[in-house]
Predict the 3D structure of the following.
Amino acid sequence: MAGAFSLVSYISVKVIEEQVIDARLAKMADRLIDFQRGGRMPDAPSDIRFLIDADIPVELRRLPAGFHEVGVGNRHVHALLRDQGSSRYAVLQEVGELEHTELVILLSLALGFAVSVLLAAVLGVLCAKRIIAPVAALADAVGRNAGPTELPSLSAQDEIGVLARAFAKRTDELQQFLQRERLFTGDVSHELRTPLTIMLGAAEVLIPQLSERPAQLATAERIRRVAAETAQRVSALLLLARAPESQDAPCIVLNTIIESEMERCRSLLHDKLVECRLEWSEQVSVQVHPELAGIVIGNLLRNACRHTEQGRILVQLSAARLLIEDTGSGIPQKVRKRLFDRFVHGDERPAHEGTGLGLSIVKRVVDHVGWNVRLETPEAGGTRFVLTFPAGAGSLVNGP
């Protein structure tokens, strides 16, 4: 705006200058020529020169009649040339003083432009700080998870107040939802622990009594094993219901968890021509609760066993990642982007064996413990899941 104002002012000065000088020269020319043609001596102002015919400088004789701005000698003049009868008249006005005035005006405009820009910058910074301050305070409060009633500017009637109240409402809804979810998960897990403990105790008491009845002994052992596994899953759900920062996870050897989960999944490969192989060159330690690690690895292994009819299931463990690859039917392209969503199945069969929650639970646990999981498609077909561990994971001792 300052630049536009300065430009308009400069153009206005030039236009006014031209019009004023030209009008004055035209008026003086009419008066002086009338005096001269009337036989009287024309009386010109001190800054005006009135020349006739031979007295006109050579530079002006070649110019047509009209207004001109030219240099005569070492001077810069405005000239009005007129032809009347056989005579040529010239009225000259030096513009040195006008140029000085014009320079002063231009310098004033330049100074005004600079001051305007500086003032605009200062006012812009001050206004921006004043306007942004409530937004920054609101963002800080939301970032530190302040309660809905602790958000600033809630009583303001401007746009910031509207935004703060919208944040407060949304924050309250989210906190209530999270609280309900945690309470539900905790309550269900707590209520399941008692019957599971009873089942586990009854199975352990029953097993020694069936030593001479192999069929019933196998059934009792299976009940005990399933009850123990379910109890571990319930403990994992209780851990999952807590905030990650409130947990002090132990440092465990992941190899043992993998071997245990692979043993649990062997029954799913009964009567299938599938080789399940574990490859590792070192024992890997990670900081995680074993129940949560078991949920992740167990779900991925069970999916691989259920969807692989022949071929192999390869489990590779290194210090930085865990790879679970199978030669099964693979996952359709259209569901890959939503694979970790709830109730999404990884196959297109009309009847599904599961509920579509396994991989969503895997994703939730992985996010909870700070790992990362991604889906890859091997060139030979099938499915490959890759779990990567944070920088804190590392090897303990070399293995076979």
Summary: The first strand starts at residue 48 and ends at 52. The two ends are 77 Å apart (CA to CA). The mean pLDDT is 81. Residues 381 and 393 are 30 Å apart (CA to CA).
